[in-house]
Amino acid sequence: MAGVSAQAKRVVVTGMGCVTPLGGNYSTTLEAAFAGRSGAGPITHFDPLGFSSRIAAEYGPALAPKVLRARDLRRTSRCVLFALEATAEALNSSGLEIDDSNRDRVGVAIGSGIGGLGTILENDAILREKGPRRVSPFTIPMGIANMSSGMISVHHGARGPNVCHVTACASGAHAIGEGAELIKRGQADAMIVGGAEAPILGVTVAGFASMKALSTRNEEPERASRPFDRGRDGFVVGEGAGVLVIESLEHARARGASILAEVMGYGATADATHPVAPDPGGEAASRCMEWALADAGIPPEEVGYVNAHATSTPLGDPAEVVALRRTFGGYLDRLPVSATKSMTGHLLGAAGSVEAILSIGALESGRIPPTINLDDPDPACALDHVANRARSARPGVALSNSFGFGGTNASLVLGITDL
After folding, report:
1. pTM of the entire structure?
2. Helix or strand holding residue 208 (H, E)
3. Which residues are catalytic?
4. How far, in Å, CA of 372 to CA of 356, rounded?
């Protein structure tokens, strides 16, 4: 958590990998985001006939992580497949080799909001149609939310802390922050952290739709997710994973790793007001950002870019703007803000880690990804919007917000200022 002393270890990012509706790896996802491309389209994972919302941000290609044997693919939940695929890229880009010399000091923290719910639903249908003897013995192992962390540990031999944060849409961000805390406390030298989610299921879409949380722009899915726009009517559910390799600065330097960014600060708070609606006053969300900045040891004016949680819901977007105003005051008027969910859709438990990765991509490249479909900015969401086109900038420090059902909040401060 925030409040670590100035003597604490610095934590850096040495590898990143992702699988998103924008692409099957980091580079394709990042370039699609800079290009302002939407990953949304008609739902193909199930027949959405009769649903009020029939669109989603799906990942189309087949998933076949190389660490799995062919016979194991059908036994492994889609959520875990996403996690394994993104982890392979993150480890490869980091150059971190896990072997007998270090495996006890490498941990895993992959968050998820609903984990392998698809596996549970499939086997519930089998139970009802064919009876209990036909239910797969993999139902429980592949249904539980922590199995992404578990399978990464199994296949890569990481024997350090192995945890899973289940905090709805903040899961991936909490995994990064809490993984960094394990390194700061000296319980690991490196952590594989992030989030994975495969939520495009009939019951999930129907449930969100019943809450009036999803966009019903079924005829124009690419324009449906429109954070901060006056015409927003809900989010577009997405799927995928974002995974980072983080290490203590000393450990990364000792092995000659390329350092991509620093996890400078982390904050976590709770609204304690409502199960699903954000606190319109923004007090706890603002305090979360303030704690992350205090943990980083920087004033608000050093932040050069905010990747907003903004999901494109009528209540959530203005509540975050209120919280941002409480945190940044007048500086907010010249602080670039964008919402990459306008392109990826809302990846729920994977959203925070994918957005942290995109934020680091912005810091590295000198380009800020846009909020697409922002044609008529809501006056209640007045910001320095990076609207519809990427913006050239060298922010140095980025803040990434993730807020979830249950009133859970997470903020990450990421930087490349003095590395």
Report:
1. 0.96
2. helix 202-210
3. 169, 309, 346
4. 18
